[in-house]
Amino acid sequence: MVVGEAGTAADALVRIPATRPDVAVLDVRLPDGSGVEVCREIRSQDESIKCLMLTSFADDEALFDAIMAGASGYVLKAIRGNELLTAVRDVAAGKSLLDPVATARVLERLRDGGRSKEDDRLAGLTEQERKILNLIGEGMTNRAIGERLHLAEKTIKNYVSSLLSKLGMERRSQAAAYVARMQAEKH
Question: Measuring CA to CA, which residue among 173, 160, 157, 165 is closest to residue 60?
Fold first, then answer.
């Protein structure tokens, strides 16, 4: 059952917490911002709300931004109505609509410490930072990572800052793009 609609990011940030849907279907590109940012904000407030990202075209950077924001899935707008309904039901049931094979390859590459010169930056990460990077790759928020690892959210933020610094990056989205490049190289 549809419990609400919003045409802008600002409207979505008001309506989603008010209606508390099981799944928020968010367009990656909104007139006043990004559905990925809406996802990140909503998931930081209430992790029980799952987000399914909808986009016009497959884009690795947007996909990894969505994962980093905590999205449960990512589908193309060309999806048929009944397939979208199935996707929403699957996400509501706790299933991930992210390619498990691609995700497994990326995580394996991170655990192995990388093989190429570019991956040498990963060698500088501590075991804990690698775990956190893996969990970010699975789409978990800092709060969820903290709960999983039995650490404070502030401690996780510190680890994320440290691993971004070691990777020579300023934002999580850069780390996502980096992971996407590693996946493409492995492929």
Answer: 173
Indicate if the pLDDT at residue 165 is higher than 80: yes
Q: Where is average pLDDT lowest: 30-44, 66-80, 98-112, 131-145?
A: 98-112
Look at 15-29, 52-66, 112-126 and tell me which has the smallest mean pLDDT.
Answer: 112-126
pTM of the predicted model over 0.85: no
Q: Report the pLDDT value the prediction gives residue 184, as an integer from 0 to 100.
A: 60
Does the pLDDT of residue 22 top 90, yes or no?
yes
- Tell me, letter by letter, the H, E, C secondary structure of the chain: CCCCCCCCHHHHHHHHHHHCCCEEEEECEECCEEHHHHHHHHHHHCCCCEEEEEECCCCHHHHHHHHHHCCCEEEECCCCHHHHHHHHHHHHCCCCECCHHHHHHHHHHHHHCCCCCCCHHHHCCCHHHHHHHHHHHCCCCHHHHHHHHCCCHHHHHHHHHHHHHHCCCCCHHHHHHHHHHHHHHHC
Q: H/E/C letters for each residue in 24-38?
A: EEEECEECCEEHHHH
